[in-house]
Write a structure and sequence with these properties.
Layout lengths: L1 E7 L13 H20 L4 E6 L2 E3 L8 E11 L3 E10 L5 E12 L17 H8 L2
Antiparallel strand pairs: 1-4, 2-6, 3-6, 4-5, 5-6
């Protein structure tokens, strides 16, 4: 799994127990899944269709640096299935896992559309291909 994004847990991210609010963390995960999918599918019109069971395993507190990891589980015709792990950057202790996040590729009319992708592509490889 590749960890693409780091977040610093700040006072405004905390719940009444002085730990990271789960809703804030889920918003960060959703945003990361969307950004990852937009880049993979080369389309800014991507939406979250489904998130499977969310397993909170530990907490984070003010000042912690967390990192969000995303990996592709499957390419569908119009979808991309991802899984996610969020961990403490310093201790590598897992904070939360999400087994399946399904993102759907949309056309300009907001309808699911085929994306034609079958494997992970890295931007550096796309740039190298465009130089040929």
């Amino acid at each position: 799994m590749r960890f693409h994004t780091r977040k610093w847990v700040k006072p405004e991210d905390l719940n009444a127990n002085e730990s990271l609010f789960g809703g804030k963390l889920l918003a960060w995960i959703d945003e990361e899944a969307a950004l990852y999918s937009i880049i993979q599918l080369e389309n800014k019109r991507v939406v979250t269709k489904y998130m499977s069971e969310i397993n909170f395993m530990s907490s984070a507190v003010k000042g912690d640096v967390i990192e969000i990891g995303i990996e592709v589980v499957k390419f569908g015709k119009s979808s991309l299935t991802l899984n996610c792990e969020v961990r403490n950057k310093m201790t590598h202790e897992t904070i939360v896992t999400v087994d399946n996040i399904i993102m759907v590729n949309l056309n300009e009319n907001g309808k699911p559309t085929n994306h034609g992708k079958t494997k992970i592509e890295y931007v550096k490889d796309r740039l190298a291909d465009s130089d040929k």
